Amino acid sequence: MKIYEGTISPPDDGYIAIVVAKFNRSITQGLLDGALAKLKQHKVSQSAIRVCWVPGAFELPGVTERFADDNKCQAVICLGAVIKGETQHDYFINQAISTEICRLGVQSGKPVIFGVLTCNTVEQAEARSGMKEQSRDKSVDPTAGNKGAEAAETALEMIQLYTELPHKLRCRINRKEP
Asked: Are 20 and 137 in contact (CB under 8 A)?
């Protein structure tokens, strides 16, 4: 029996892209700060990180696809915050971006990490972005409770895991045969 389980380690080559939404920037900046701190903690050099700001969460998949198509990109971390309002707008945004980000991960064959908060209140988003004290001990890990840090750690683990897994076979359903 062969068991596959990733370990958290910096990528050997290439870079990690972080695509982050500007909408709810006080929240998403906290997510980005947590992701960058976690990457630094795991010895990922600044030259191996690309950060791209997009207007809002709805724009995350389009830019994510550009990075995922680059052979030098080892993983893409998507960060955003969609907070419930008075209408169902959040539901439609969350459904669209989660489906598309998932598809991009499968299609690209590389880790595409969903680090988008989907909260009912600003307070919930603040707690998940590291802006509020958590019940976890921050003296041990200053990024505890920060979902951006968790997304970065997931990316590092998945990069390593993908190197151990068999390569997937790609086929195109709509490809025209000669």
From this structure: no
